[in-house]
């Protein structure tokens, strides 16, 4: 699943490409995305002719800010188009044309759209599961490739969406300038659980998932199953420092593309090549050479060095 560095990379790319554009229509082959407003027709009415004023991110959610250019600024209620890409979704901007049995590279059986022109990063096989397209006034398109169709897409007045329980209960943003060590330590007061699961809890701290939790804990020499009650002051300090370090590094490298993630132009991220332990089972630990082990914690895999990271 895309985590903070991946979602932030996409949001920045979308902001660059979409700001000032108008949405002219939509296409989907999966109307079940539309729960709010409910149904494809209502959703289409909600977004058509709206102007995109910017794109931002909160936790793993992408906010596409919309305004209605036909209404006076004072009356217009700004809308948010929220996309949570979930397991396999990623948003891209480009041009596609309906696929009609052309012989263009390797084609997936259900593929309905093909990049136009049929070359470049959009042709990456991970980008062909186009389920939803927003058409723009400059002939470009905003497309969601979503192999497993788990993405969440909703639209409504900005205040209502920001006020919804899902958004309000999210934990702090780890890269926020105002989020310093004292606030981080405060979060752990009376907190229970295993450190890896705690770091991945979006209502505890936002944006960290399986990849970066493994990386942060390896760099901090903390076992993923360690109970947070047993963490010392110096452990928390180092976890805090490494959380910021790893997330910033991954953001600079535009995320990790081991799984489905690609950026807003369909390109791979660069963190895969420098990762320490994530999905490196049986490879040597970059610090001590011991084989990296994999462990199941709460249904998810954790990768760690049994020598550097003792319980
Ligand atoms: Zn090691």
Automatic annotation (TrEMBL):
<keyword id="KW-0227">DNA damage</keyword>
<dbReference type="InterPro" id="IPR000214">
    <property type="entry name" value="Znf_DNA_glyclase/AP_lyase"/>
</dbReference>
<dbReference type="InterPro" id="IPR015887">
    <property type="entry name" value="DNA_glyclase_Znf_dom_DNA_BS"/>
</dbReference>
<feature type="domain" description="FPG-type">
    <location>
        <begin position="276"/>
        <end position="310"/>
    </location>
</feature>
<comment type="similarity">
    <text>Belongs to the FPG family.</text>
</comment>
<dbReference type="GO" id="GO:0140078">
    <property type="term" value="F:class I DNA-(apurinic or apyrimidinic site) endonuclease activity"/>
</dbReference>
<keyword id="KW-0456">Lyase</keyword>
<dbReference type="InterPro" id="IPR015886">
    <property type="entry name" value="H2TH_FPG"/>
</dbReference>
<keyword id="KW-0238">DNA-binding</keyword>
<dbReference type="InterPro" id="IPR010663">
    <property type="entry name" value="Znf_FPG/IleRS"/>
</dbReference>
<keyword id="KW-0511">Multifunctional enzyme</keyword>
<keyword id="KW-0326">Glycosidase</keyword>
<protein>
    <submittedName>
        <fullName>Formamidopyrimidine-DNA glycosylase</fullName>
    </submittedName>
</protein>
<dbReference type="InterPro" id="IPR010979">
    <property type="entry name" value="Ribosomal_uS13-like_H2TH"/>
</dbReference>
<keyword id="KW-0479">Metal-binding</keyword>
<keyword id="KW-0863">Zinc-finger</keyword>
<keyword id="KW-0862">Zinc</keyword>
<feature type="domain" description="Formamidopyrimidine-DNA glycosylase catalytic">
    <location>
        <begin position="2"/>
        <end position="151"/>
    </location>
</feature>
<dbReference type="GO" id="GO:0034039">
    <property type="term" value="F:8-oxo-7,8-dihydroguanine DNA N-glycosylase activity"/>
</dbReference>
<dbReference type="InterPro" id="IPR012319">
    <property type="entry name" value="FPG_cat"/>
</dbReference>
<dbReference type="GO" id="GO:0008270">
    <property type="term" value="F:zinc ion binding"/>
</dbReference>
<dbReference type="Pfam" id="PF06831">
    <property type="entry name" value="H2TH"/>
</dbReference>
<dbReference type="GO" id="GO:0006284">
    <property type="term" value="P:base-excision repair"/>
</dbReference>
<dbReference type="InterPro" id="IPR035937">
    <property type="entry name" value="FPG_N"/>
</dbReference>
<comment type="subunit">
    <text>Monomer.</text>
</comment>
<dbReference type="InterPro" id="IPR020629">
    <property type="entry name" value="FPG_Glyclase"/>
</dbReference>
<dbReference type="Pfam" id="PF01149">
    <property type="entry name" value="Fapy_DNA_glyco"/>
</dbReference>
<dbReference type="Pfam" id="PF06827">
    <property type="entry name" value="zf-FPG_IleRS"/>
</dbReference>
<keyword id="KW-0234">DNA repair</keyword>
<keyword id="KW-0378">Hydrolase</keyword>
<dbReference type="GO" id="GO:0003684">
    <property type="term" value="F:damaged DNA binding"/>
</dbReference>
């Amino acid at each position: 699943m895309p985590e903070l560095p991946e979602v932030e990379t996409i949001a920045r790319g979308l902001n660059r490409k979409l700001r000032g554009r108008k949405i002219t229509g939509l296409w989907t082959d999966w109307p079940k995305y539309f729960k709010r407003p409910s149904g494809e027709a209502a959703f289409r009415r909600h977004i058509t002719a709206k102007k995109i004023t910017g794109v931002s991110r909160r936790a793993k959610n992408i906010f596409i800010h919309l305004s209605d250019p036909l209404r006076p600024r004072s009356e217009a209620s700004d809308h948010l188009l929220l996309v949570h890409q979930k397991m396999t979704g990623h948003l891209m901007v480009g041009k596609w044309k309906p696929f009609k049995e052309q012989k263009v590279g390797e084609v997936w059986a259900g593929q309905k759209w093909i990049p136009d022109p049929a070359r470049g990063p959009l042709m990456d096989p991970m980008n062909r599961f186009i389920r939803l397209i927003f058409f723009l006034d400059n002939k470009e398109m905003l497309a969601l490739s979503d192999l497993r169709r788990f993405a969440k897409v909703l639209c409504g007045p900005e205040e209502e969406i920001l006020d919804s329980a899902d958004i309000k209960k999210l934990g702090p943003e780890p890269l926020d300038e105002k989020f310093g060590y004292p606030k981080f330590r405060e979060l752990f007061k009376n907190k229970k659980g295993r450190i890896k699961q705690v770091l991945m809890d979006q209502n505890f701290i936002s944006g960290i998932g399986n990849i970066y939790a493994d990386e942060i804990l390896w760099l901090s020499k903390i076992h993923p199953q360690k109970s947070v009650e047993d963490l010392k002051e110096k452990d928390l300090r180092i976890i805090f420092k490494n959380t910021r370090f790893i997330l910033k590094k991954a953001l600079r490298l535009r995320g990790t593309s081991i799984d489905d993630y690609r950026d807003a132009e369909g390109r791979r991220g660069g963190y895969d090549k420098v990762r320490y332990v994530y999905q490196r089972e049986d490879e040597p630990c970059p610090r001590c050479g011991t084989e990296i082990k994999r462990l199941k914690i709460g249904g998810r895999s954790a990768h760690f060095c049994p020598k550097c990271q003792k319980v």
